[in-house]
Design brief:
This protein is of the alpha+beta class. Helices cover 17% and strands 35% of the residues. The protein contains six helices and 23 strands.
């Protein structure tokens, strides 16, 4: 197996200006050790190639902020990526992990309440507002990396694309969904007249087994979502609620003056007083109590217009309801971090159960090998959302079938031996009934009590879905 490590370096001194000149362009990674060829990708011959890059500056636009309202948002990243390449069932398999840190940002996002756009910046720089404590930052997703190699046998460059759907939080390593493409869908020509085309299968094999040299990597594309941040604001930022409450109080005071004859001028609120700060975590108790009291004035004290106060109460409630509807309308259509399909690491070693690629739905059977001798196991099934099920199973010669409902992506079937049968170790066959895309349909294990065997299954949606 061969391992390629690429990373982003902090921009300091003279390089900072250079980084800014590539605004909006993919950041190209240059190798530090170009003299190290990658030979044969044998699993017993791992190789690490390190690289560095300038910072990556991305621009994006929230779908609710048009070009006529504000400039695009910008985010600057430092990033690292690690690509593992190996052979699985005589075909290539790839696993990539990615990590990023946000070093700077200018977020132009919809304003909850009066105003169109709010600028959010680190520590409130450049006239913006500082992000409130605990607020999630903008979320990258579907990060497309292209690793670039030079193939001397072809005197050409080839590229290998990897996508990390869910990069996770800043500073955390996140894995992609490992892939095992056909040879004819492994490399893309990066130079020559066929640039952009797939490298044919036989040529790809020759490149793989030849003197393939890593030349670098680039961030080819990143999507951005502010859904988590906007959801946080909708729940925790009470600025728009404070403004709406002040306006509702004024409407109630106007109705009370007409129906009860009260002098209300000194009691009126100034809604603009609640415009700042951009994030208001609470509404003053004084304002809330004032609103509640004005909603409940005794009808028996009316002296003037009998309907003015009742109409004012309806309008005040409508103001508050309109505020809630307005806040809901700012929901970002982008995905929430929790909804992104997470990947998993893949072990390309020679020991243990081998990873398998299948099509959903997932179905398998646990079968006791040999005579039934009271082999008992704890079966735990996990997918990208967490533990799907966990139960105690007594192994039978006839087998026990399981059809768990799992999300597409990595699924781990963990079998922990709770006992050893009278005839020896806890032995079992895991038989898959799903459509197997790549890998063995049956695998066996033999465990001592307390040991665990894990089968990593990469579950894909059925073709055509």
């Amino acid at each position: 197996m061969a391992r390629f490590l690429t990373s982003g370096r902090p921009v300091t001194g003279e390089t900072r200006q250079q980084a800014k000149t590539v605004h909006g362009l993919p950041a190209l990674v240059f190798l530090l050790f170009l003299a190290l060829p990658v030979m044969a990708f044998a699993q017993d011959n791992p190789r690490i190639v390190e690289a560095g890059a300038e910072r990556y500056e991305a621009t994006f636009r929230n779908p609710l902020v048009g070009e006529d309202l504000a400039p695009a948002s910008t985010v600057t990243l430092d990033w690292n990526a690690e690509l593992e390449m190996g052979l699985l069932y005589d075909e290539p398999v790839f696993s990539t992990r990615f990590r990023y840190d946000v070093t700077d940002y200018r977020l132009q996002l919809p304003t909850l309440g009066p105003g169109a756009v709010q600028l959010w910046t680190p520590q409130g720089e450049d006239g913006g507002a500082a992000l409130p404590e605990g607020a999630p930052l903008v979320q990258p997703y579907a990060v497309r990396l292209v690793f670039r190699f030079y193939a001397p046998s072809q005197n050409a460059y080839v590229g290998l694309a990897q996508v990390i759907e869910a990069p996770g939080l800043p500073g955390e390593w996140a894995f992609n969904m490992p892939s095992s493409p056909d040879w004819g869908r492994t490399f893309v020509w990066e130079s020559g007249i066929a640039k952009g085309d797939w490298v044919k299968a036989e040529t790809a094999k020759a490149i793989w087994n030849g003197d393939l040299r890593a030349e670098g990597a680039r961030l080819d594309a990143i999507n951005w979502s502010t859904a988590d941040f906007m959801a946080f604001l909708a729940e925790n930022n009470l600025r728009n609620r404070a403004i709406a409450t002040a306006e509702a109080v004024n409407r109630l005071l106007s109705g009370a003056a007409r129906s009860f004859g009260y002098e209300v001028l000194s009691l009126r609120e100034d809604p603009k007083a609640y415009d700042q700060p951009a994030f208001r975590p609470r509404i003053s108790l004084r304002l809330l109590r004032k609103y509640e009291r004005l909603l409940s004035l005794p009808q028996s004290l009316k002296q003037g217009d009998a309907t003015a106060y009742d109409e004012a109460r309806e309008e005040a409630r409508a103001i508050m309801a309109l505020m809630e509807d307005d806040a809901a309308s700012y929901a970002d259509p982008g995905p929430l971090r929790a909804d992104l399909p997470r990947g998993a690491a893949i072990d390309l070693g020679d020991d243990g159960l081998q990873p398998v690629f299948v099509e959903l739905p997932l179905a398998f059977t646990l079968i006791d090998n040999g005579r039934e001798d009271v082999d008992r196991v704890e079966l735990t099934i996990s997918d990208s959302t967490g533990v799907v099920s966990s139960e105690i199973v007594d192994l039978l010669n006839g087998g026990t079938r399981f059809e768990p409902s799992v999300a597409p992506g990595p699924v781990r079937i963990a079998v922990k031996a709770l006992s050893e049968g009278a005839l020896g170790q806890n032995t079992c066959t895991i038989q898959l009934h799903s459509t197997v895309v790549k890998g063995p349909g049956e695998q066996e294990y033999s465990l001592r009590a307390g040991e665990t065997a894990s089968l990593l299954v990469f579950a894909e949606a059925p073709q055509g879905e």
